[in-house]
Every structure is written in C-alpha cells, then in structure tokens.
Amino acid sequence: MHRASHEPNLAYGMLRRAALNPERIAIIFEEQKISFKELADRVRRQATLLREAGVCAGDRVAFLGFNHPAFFETLFAANTLGAIFVPLNFRLTAEELTFIINDAGVHSLICDDALRPVVEQAIPNLSCKQYFSSESEAENWRHLNSERAAAQPMVDISSADEHDISLIMYTSGTTGLPKGAMLTHGNILWNNINAMMAFGGSRDDIVLTAAPIFHIGALNVLCLNCFQLGATVALLRSFDPGKVLADFERYRATHMFGAPAMFLFMSQQPQFADTDLSSIKMLLCGGAPVPIPLIETYGERGISFVQAYGLTETAPFACGLSEEWAVKKLGSAGQAPLFTEVRIVGEDNKVLEAGEKGEICIRGPNIMKGYWNRPEATAEAIDEMGWFHSGDIGYMDEDDFVYISDRLKDMVISGGENVYPAEVESVLYKHDAIAEVAVIGLQDDKWGEAVTAVVALNEGQELSLEGLREFATDHLARYKIPLRLHIVDALPRNPAGKVLKYVLKERLAD
C-alpha cells in the first residue's frame, strides 16, 4: 500500500491503521473479536472477489441486512476498488427496495439471511448482476464467506480524490421518492475531524453500536472514525435495551449513539439501576431533542448526553450541544462544529437576526456532492454559494446556538426514523374508503412522534386503524405505517388548496 498519507480514500484509512496496529480489536460481534489485521485481510480478499465478479471503479455495491461486520467489510472492499457503497434500509418492503436498487444501478448486492426472502420477491425486477449471501449458503446466491476465503488479498487500493463518492445513502424525499445523497471520501473525513474536535476521541474508546448502521447517524457520528483511530466498534445485530445495558458492562463500553427513544427504553429496564455504567464517557443523541426527565435520569448516574443535529446530506454533523451547555441551553441543537458554518435565512436567502425564525442552512466540507441522478433536486438543495438548505425551520440565539422550531418539509421523526408524509399519503390514497388524507406527527411519549393519519372518507365507507395498517403493510416499512387514525369530515385547506397541517396538529394535540 505505497500511498501518500493524505490519501482520502476511506478504505485507505482503515487499511493503514491495520498496518500500524494489526493486533488491536476493530469489531466485537456476537462472541467474535475481529482484529484490524483480520478485518484488513477480509476487506482485501472481498475487493478481489468483487473485482472478479465484474465490479469496476464507480460501480455501486449494496448491503442489505441487520448490523453485521459484513456491512463494514463490504463498504471498505467497495471503496478499495474505487466503487461506491450503497447501504440499504432493512425495514423497507420489496417494492421500496426495488426503486432504490434500480435508481442506484446496483451491480452487486450482499444480503443477510433475514432479508434474503424480501430480495427474492424482487429479483425479477432488479438491475443487479451479482447476488452474495453474507451468512448461510443459499440456492442461486453466491456465498460471500467461502468465496472470499478462496480469493487472493488485493495489494493495491484505488486512489481517491476527496470529491470522489464513497457511498450513496438514500433519504426519503418530500415527493415520496427517495433520493440518494452522494457522500464523498472528503465529506466523511471532514465530518470525522469535526466530531473529533467537538467530542474528543481515543484509540481506547469502545463504541457500542446498536442503532441501524444503514443510517448516517449510527454509521458516521462515531463508528467510521473508530476504524481510522484504532478504536473498537462493539456491534449489536439490532437494538435490545436489556442487551445494550448488559454489553455496556461486559465490554466496558465508552460511547453510544442513539435516538432518545432508545435511551428511554434502556432506562425503563428493571436492571438499569444495578448496571455498572461507570465506563461511559458520553452518550450521543440525535433524531430529536432529549426530554429533560431523561437527561435527569442519566444525570443521576453521572452520565451526560451530547445532543447533535444533522442530516444525511451533511454527513451528518451540523450542530452539537456539548455537555457543558446541556442544561443552560436546554432545547437547543447546539453550535456548528469547527469546520462547518450554519446560518438562518429568510425566503429571500438573506441572513436573519438572532431570534428570527427561518430556514437552517449549512455549509462546509461535510456537505454532500449532490443527489444521485437528480441535478434539479441538487440545485434546489444547494445554492450557488454552497449552502445546503435543510428544509428545517429554526432560529439562532445571541450566542449562535441553533434552535429547531419546525420542519418545513413536515417530516415526522418516529423512534429516530424519518417519515415523510407525502410518501405515506401516496400509499393511503389508494385505499378505496379514503377520499383525502393528511399524515402528521403527534407527540408521543414512546416514539417522540406518532405517525398519524387524518382521513376524510368516501360516502358510506368505514375505516378502522387495524384495517388501515393492514392495507399499508405491503407498501410501507413498519415504522411508516400510521399508529393513530383520526376521521374528519374534511381536511382544512388554504385558498390555494394546500392542507393546513399546523391546524390539524393544533386540533389533535393532546
């Protein structure tokens, strides 16, 4: 690996760390401890396997499955070749996955045992040329582990410019169709520098990772940095609050990223009071503000939250509220990190005064390259001066702390997952009983916000929440399916015919 040390390729950073500290533990997963040397060997062999399968620089390689070392191995192997990694949301239906896989033009798909049946429904409609099973052997699937073990380790890695794409991460669009945010090697590197400057970091950190790593928060707030730092990722296949508590004690874990609902569920476990959490340096929280009672519950154990705000398009760190400000600036999303700027603008794109509400805009080396195959959407999101327009409404106080007041895009955040009403509405409109529908988020103690369908029915029709949920099951991921149903005579609209969702929220708020 004869390469200058400023090579920004994400795979280079991990392989270089493996050369420097081969004996350190990179990943702990279900009784396995994978050293950096072993991880690097797997990545180099998988890069050869993918190249022999026809993957070239610029091609897309996807992973679909629960949290697993194969996710990281596939990411680094793809980047080793100069190919682009596409993480897929395991909660999506076959219909939703088909759109994303074909939109990205995925060449090779790596899939775990649990998700193979979902993919198999869609295979006749998919663009993929190769299918690999990451766990068991399966008919009509190539077996990743055995074929990788037989491949020769790739010696040289593809050189990358910081503007070359490392991964495409799909984010639901307000039109209902997901868009692929193109995140470059430079985006990820600068995000990690910002995070290190804001939160610190040590090669002795053990980052417990239970949130799904197909999300930018779980993947790139703490995780990817570990592979360059020489720290350890303790990876859980999925989130189980009791298991997370046990693993904090077992691995002496130091950090964890999660949505507020995850930390809430952990605090509600009977063993919470007796679990040794003394190893924790920091809990990072994103997706929604942390409620005061939760801050207090963990505070009694001497544990502080760092709240952060970001988006897939910002790779994701856009603002952070450090522990020193957690109470004084309660409710704030925090300040922009060292190498990123945040400003609030009005409709004319002019900067607003402190306290004035407007759109939150972000600029810096962590801003995505654009949306895959969507030049119009890219031009709409990133202005000529390089500011990314988040679609979130907020204001800044006199000390440049950002406060988020509303979502321009009406997004609902349920259990840390982004739900876009337009996507859910377009499915529900297909129901014969529904004349019109608006989807909103209503406050919910468990999920942060509950996806709520407000429906006007066709004459003579009836509809139950169970019936609505059953109808939506084949078309939408579970977290997008409404948890509540309100039937109204008609939806409130403005003179232009736009549904007044804020009126619905006011009427239906508890």
Describe this structure in words.
With 510 residues, the protein is α/β, with parallel strands linked by helices. Among the domains are: 1-160, ANL, N-terminal domain (Rossmann fold), CATH 3.40.50; 414-508, GMP Synthetase, Chain A, domain 3 (2-Layer Sandwich), CATH 3.30.300. 30% of the residues lie in helices and 25% in strands. The protein is built from 15 helices and 25 strands. The strands form 6 sheets. It has an 8-stranded mixed beta sheet, with helices on both faces. It is globular.
- Binned strand content: 25-35%
From the 3D structure, determine the CATH topology of the domain at 1-160.
Rossmann fold
Strand tally is 25
Q: What is the rounded distance between the termini?
A: 60 Å
The average pLDDT value, as a whole number, equals 92
- Low-confidence regions: none
Radius of gyration: 23 Å
Please tally the helical runs, counting DSSP H or I stretches of 4 or more residues.
15
The CATH architecture of the domain at 1-160: 3-Layer(aba) Sandwich
Summing up helix and strand content along with how strands pair, one would put the structural category as alpha/beta
- The dominant shape is globular
Structure described in brief:
With 510 residues, the protein is α/β, with parallel strands linked by helices.
Which key phrases capture this entry?
510 residues, alpha/beta, GMP Synthetase, Chain A, domain 3, 5-stranded parallel beta sheet
